[in-house]
């Protein structure tokens, strides 16, 4: 598959002339309108320091990468946290309590602005950013769109209720994303709280907390009585130090739209989480398929700010249209360039809607090409016994060369949440005596997730064997 130099330049948000120059240096004199093959395109992309994300063999998408900045430009940045857990276990209460505990917000008189994320300052002046939309749907939806904004997940489990279906989903979504987790055992003020039971239940899902000899930090909290919030924040701080999070603040800003709306008075608004560089008033940008110039920025305390650096969420005024959550936000050199990139992205979006390649075997493996070969799967079954037998049978197929990776296994029909998880990881969904609900089907059609239905286990393992063998190629 080939791509024109101009197209590639657009996707990379680089100048076409720079690509032509680079190609010339590589011994390939071509013009903007000429096409180059995929290998050359990839070489160029790497040359310019971007990440390659293979969506399929014929499609290269440029994502935000964290590694095209020279090591000496990298500076520590604060962590970005998402809170997940079962409904009513206290996600919202915890977000509110943490926000209320922020020393800076307290000083400002407690006037807060809900922009979709906020930052708290710890007594030692270090900061932590929290995404305000709790739950794994938003998290996985973002990831499905290639936006990995979360550094750390806080899993909330109510001590009086224990692990529930959405807790387990959250665990699996977090693991699939490879994001470290901290467990907040909430509602310890309740007389019926059983924190130790929570730890034991977590063990069954391979979340081994420190008290059980593992390395997942766990903190007993009460969001209601604001107990141990400082300990929870310290745990996040510690985890962040282990991660050594860094970004180059001295470059054009790049980030992700985490929330957007149309305001009657102020026009289209977007909250952007800056991931590298520093966004300044006056900067020209592209946000998804819309473009604009930063007219003003408002932080989570409702204050106008002139700049925002890595890990800082800010509300941006000055967009031409309302972008979507998960859209990449990129500062570019000038307005003509912004319009060009925005128009190009719109074209890509339109095309994707009509002709996106399905997430199927052909491209599923490609997306994992850099790591060990894996067959990722989401498995849903009608009864627990079948689910165990299936998981066991599938896991037994793993070899040294290729592994079956069950991202999530659950009892019940296929839901929207299963589809977003599968879509984000390029996995097909196995329905054993179960079918997707209407919403799941709708989302699957949009994200091109493949369903496979079985009612006999060996038919399923036969298919999986074939898929794995096909990937490894013929035996010699
Ligand atoms: P979410 O659905 O996970 O966002 O949960 P909420 O934050 O809405 O909390 C659900 C219910 O649990 C609410 O009635 C809260 O008041 C209550 N709740 C949350 N945290 C605590 C806690 O630490 N202790 C007690 N006793 N109740 C809590």
UniProtKB/TrEMBL annotation:
Residues the entry annotates as binding GTP: 85-92, 132-136, 186-189
Protein known as: Translation initiation factor IF-2
Annotated keywords: Cytoplasm, GTP-binding, Initiation factor, Nucleotide-binding, Protein biosynthesis
Positions of the Tr-type G domain: 76-244
Location(s) in or outside the cell: Cytoplasm
Key word Transmembrane present: no
Family membership noted in the UniProt record: Belongs to the TRAFAC class translation factor GTPase superfamily. Classic translation factor GTPase family. IF-2 subfamily.
Signal peptide annotation: none
Keyword Metal-binding: no
A GO cellular component entry from the record: cytosol
GO MF annotation terms: GTP binding; GTPase activity; translation initiation factor activity
Function as written in the Swiss-Prot or TrEMBL entry: One of the essential components for the initiation of protein synthesis. Protects formylmethionyl-tRNA from spontaneous hydrolysis and promotes its binding to the 30S ribosomal subunits. Also involved in the hydrolysis of GTP during the formation of the 70S ribosomal complex.
